[in-house]
Amino acid sequence: MKIILFSGTGNNSGKSTAAKLLTQDVWSLAGAIRQELTQKYPAYNWYNKNPDYKEKTIIEEWKDGKYNMRKVLVEYGQIPCKTNPTYWADKLVSYLTNRHFIADGVGIIGVDDVRKLCEVETVRAAFPHTTTHIHLLSDQANLEPEFENEELAKIADYKLIWEK
Fold first, then answer.
1. pTM of the model
2. What is the C-alpha to C-alpha distance for residues 20 and 122, in angstroms, rounded to an integer?
3. Tens of pLDDT, residues 43-63
4. How far is CA 96 from CA 16, 73, 115, in A?
């Protein structure tokens, strides 16, 4: 099994699209977040990764009812990271460790939403000789100052310029 981690200059930088194009199976660190939010707020399609859907869908049940889906995903995801920064990466590693992807015919797995250095470090530590990190550079991305996108670019194995 090979793992390709995708980071980028911000949201809408093409991480999910590149993962779909370059890998056989796409996973997200946010998959577990989406699963939990689906249970809490089942009226929303938390697995829809369309940028417009995430920006325009307001989650009325979250806080004051004025947050869009993207903001809720980010805020909800950061709650357990306050005490354990690798919380979601640990969940992904546990899941990947307990699956037999080669037996299932999947040899290359893409992780399409890496935003922190510790996430790369956690996956690389678990799968030291099979992990590659690609950072997508896009001038059309929406910057995410709350994440470590510039630092991720510095440690990436490869950088791709993504022109849409």
1. 0.88
2. 22
3. 999 999 888 999 999 999 999
4. 18, 22, 19
